[in-house]
Design goal:
Number of strands: 15
Strand content: 15-25%
Number of helices: 13
Largest sheet: 6 strands, mixed
Helix content: 25-40%
Shape: globular
Structural class: alpha/beta
Distance between the termini: 68 Å
Radius of gyration: 23 Å
Length: 289
C-alpha cells in the first residue's frame, strides 16, 4: 500500500481548516436564492397540483393553467434566461416540497391563509373565488354549503388533503366520519361517482371543470363559506420558501402592473377567470387574517 507522504507531512490543523473552507464554500452555494439562480440561467422548479383550472397537465402533455401561465409571464420579465421545470405533486405535498427544497415555487392557485403564511411566503393574490360542490345530478341531498352538510346527518362530503376545504368542514362542525380525505381530485371524484360520498368540496372553478362533460354530475352554485359569523372568500397566489422573500417581492413588483391588465385578462380568460375575480386584498392583509 502506498502512503501519501505529503499527507503525513501536512502541518497540524490543516484538515480542520480545509474542512471549514469547503463547508464555507458549500454554504455560499446553498445560500444562493432562487431569484439569483434564475437570473443566472439556472433551473427553477415550479409545482402544480393537477387541479384545473389553476395548474394541471393539458391534453398535449404540457403544464398549463392560470398559475403556470402567469408564472411564465412573470419570470420572462424577471429572469428571461431561467430554465423553468414544471412538476406535478399532490396538493398536500406543495408546502413540504417548498420547505425541503425539492420545489422552488408552488403555482397551484393556493389560497393565502394565516396558517400557511406561518410556513411559506406568498405573492399577492391573483384572483378571488368562492366554493362549490361537485354532486350527483339533481343534487339529491340538497347540499348548498358546508352548513347544509353539517345539518344533514346522512350527508358525506369528500375533501382533498391539504386544502382549505378541510378547515371549512371542521369549523362548520362536520364530523370526520362524514368528511373523508382523499389524496387527490381524481380519487375524490371516483368516490362521488361510486356513491361513497354525496359531494366533493372544491373551489367553484374546479367544481365546474371537474363535472364538465361528466354524465350524471353537476356543480352547485358558487357560495362563500360563513365561518364564525364571517363570510370567507378564497384568494389564491404563489407560494415560496420564506428564505426567498426577495423572489416573492420581485414577483409582486411584476404582478402590481400585470394583474387586471388586458394582457393578464387575455391570458387567464381561457381558464374561466374573469375581470370580476380580480383580488382586492394583499398577501399581507390575508396573512394577518
Amino acid at each position: 500500500m502506498r502512503v501519501n507522504v505529503d499527507f503525513l507531512r501536512r502541518p497540524a490543523g490543516w484538515l480542520a481548516a480545509g474542512l471549514v473552507s469547503v463547508l464555507a464554500m458549500t454554504g455560499l452555494a446553498s445560500a444562493q436564492g432562487v431569484l439569483e439562480r434564475a437570473r443566472e440561467g439556472g433551473k427553477v422548479t415550479i409545482a402544480v397540483a393537477g387541479e384545473a383550472p389553476y395548474g394541471y397537465r393539458g391534453p398535449d402533455g404540457e403544464i398549463t393553467g392560470e398559475a403556470p401561465e402567469i408564472a411564465r409571464a412573470v419570470l420572462a420579465r424577471l429572469a428571461p434566461d431561467a430554465e423553468l421545470s414544471f412538476v406535478t405533486v399532490e396538493f398536500g405535498a406543495l408546502i413540504p416540497g417548498l420547505r425541503d427544497g425539492s420545489i422552488d415555487i408552488a403555482a397551484a392557485g393556493m389560497f393565502i391563509t394565516p396558517a400557511r403564511c406561518g410556513e411559506v411566503a406568498f405573492s399577492n393574490p391573483t384572483y378571488v373565488v368562492g366554493e362549490a360542490f361537485a354532486v350527483k345530478a339533481g343534487n339529491p341531498r340538497g347540499l348548498t354549503d358546508f352548513a347544509t352538510v353539517s345539518d344533514n346527518e346522512e350527508a358525506r362530503v369528500g375533501l382533498i388533503a391539504g386544502t382549505v376545504e378541510y378547515n371549512y368542514a371542521l369549523v362548520t362542525g362536520i364530523p370526520a366520519d362524514r368528511a373523508p380525505l382523499y389524496r387527490d381530485f381524481d380519487l375524490a371524484m371516483d368516490a362521488l361517482k361510486a356513491g361513497e360520498i354525496d359531494a366533493v368540496a372544491l373551489t367553484a372553478l374546479t367544481a365546474k371543470d371537474l363535472v364538465d362533460g361528466e354524465d350524471g354530475l353537476e356543480a352547485t352554485p358558487q357560495f362563500y363559506p360563513v365561518l364564525d359569523g364571517e363570510q370567507v372568500k378564497g384568494y389564491g397566489g404563489f407560494a415560496f420558501r420564506k428564505e426567498d422573500r426577495d423572489l416573492a417581492d420581485a414577483f409582486n413588483g411584476v404582478l402590481a402592473d400585470f394583474i387586471g391588465s388586458p394582457d393578464h385578462l387575455a391570458l387567464v380568460e381561457p381558464f374561466g377567470f374573469t375581470e370580476d375575480m380580480m383580488p382586492d386584498m394583499t398577501a399581507e392583509d390575508l396573512c394577518e387574517g
